[in-house]
TrEMBL record:
Residues annotated as binding GTP: 19-26, 66-70, 128-131
Region (G1): 19-26
Summary of the function given for this chain in its UniProt record: An essential GTPase that binds both GDP and GTP, with rapid nucleotide exchange. Plays a role in 16S rRNA processing and 30S ribosomal subunit biogenesis and possibly also in cell cycle regulation and energy metabolism.
Protein name, entry field: GTPase Era
Pfam families: KH_2 (PF07650), MMR_HSR1 (PF01926)
Gene Ontology BP terms: ribosomal small subunit assembly
Ranges for region G4: 128-131
GN (gene name): era
Length: 304
């Protein structure tokens, strides 16, 4: 006979993770999922499209919508990214605002806070990077933000060290509406393997190249072939805007592109669990930022 305590209801809901560029949104989504689903770099605006990371906490499935950082857009690509960020909050059961607690109320934060104040959804405040912050400052910051927005709860976490992440995950799980899970139990992301693979190559551009170059580049999958020997052959195009950028991506004697390829290949192989042959081609396309087809390929809406 079943007594009351053995009846467990499942929960499922969407949490929109928003914040300024570099707040640590992608790192936090990865920490909540427990595996890397979003690429991370020290450069701002690494995340270009909405990405759903899927975390399971007890009987709850959390659909974590990792959004691009919200900032004042300048280029067309910027506008598409900011639109993707706010679109990511539509239909969310809860909005989680991630703040770089060390940076505090600087930059884009006040504008985001103001925009959030009028939203009707439930809202959580997450002060991130507590590992590099002074405690007293954290409390003052939490007070200031709570005075501006009706946050239901405030959390202090370090997405990097994992400090506070378990508590946050449990609270998010409890806040989700009762209902069936949307994804199979073992699925960690809604991104296709192809998109993830091109993201992993793009991550290497951010990690291995300096200054503005990564922002001027996009990756397109040209060919994806599952070979009979169990390996996967992947051809990706790195599209840049100028010849001079192509030269930088290639490096002296092709050294840089080889290093990018080696690191990306290892990461993609870990993702797919299969040996990978990665072929990278660099192509110059001066106005790719205005090319509609390249937007949908990376999951962004083209904005006029
Ligand atoms: N010390 C510390 N650094 C962190 C923490 N969380 C993230 N970072 C670092 O902050 C930087 C930005 O992290 P991301 O997760 O890419 O930030 P994001 O908010 O997704 O950035 P965008 O893609 O620009 O929107 C990276 O260098 C992270 O390693 C943390 O808890 N502590």
């Amino acid at each position: 006979m079943m007594d009351e305590t053995t009846i467990e209801i499942t929960r499922c809901g969407a949490v929109a993770v928003v914040g300024a560029p570099n707040a640590g949104k992608s790192t936090l989504v990865n920490a909540l999922v427990g595996q890397k689903v979003a690429i991370v770099s020290a450069k701002v605006q690494t995340t270009r499209q909405r990405l759903v990371g899927i975390a399971v906490a007890g009987q709850a499935q959390l659909l974590l919508v990792d959004t691009p950082g919200i900032f004042r857009p300048r280029r067309r690509l910027d506008r598409a990214m900011v639109k993707a960020a706010w679109d990511g909050t539509d239909d969310a059961d809860l909005i989680a605002l991630v703040i770089d607690a060390k940076a505090g109320l600087k930059g884009e934060v006040p504008a985001i806070v103001e925009a959030l104040a009028n939203r009707r959804e439930r809202k959580y405040l997450i002060l991130n990077k507590v590992d590099i912050c002074v405690k007293e400052k954290l409390l003052v910051l939490a007070q200031e933000l709570n005075a501006r927005v009706a946050f239901e709860e405030t959390f202090f976490v370090s997405a990097s060290t994992g400090d506070g992440v378990a508590g946050l995950k449990a609270a998010l799980a409890a806040a989700m509406p009762a209902g069936p899970w949307h994804y199979p139990e073992d699925q960690l992301s809604d991104a296709t393997t192809r998109l993830m693979a091109s993201e992993l190559t793009r991550e290497q551009l951010y990690l291995q190249l300096h200054a503005e170059l990564p922002y001027s580049a996009t990756i397109e999958t040209e060919k994806w072939e599952e070979r009979r020997d169990g390996s996967t052959a992947i051809h990706q195009q790195i599209i840049v805007e100028r010849d001079s950028q192509k030269a930088i991506v290639l490096g002296k004697g092709g050294l840089r592109i080889r290093e990018i390829g080696a690191a990306a290949r290892a990461a993609i192989s870990e993702l797919t669990g299969r040996p990978v042959h990665l072929f990278l081609h660099v192509k110059v396309k001066p106005d790719w930022g205005d090319d509609r087809s390249l937007y949908s390929a990376v999951g962004l809406d083209f904005v006029d």
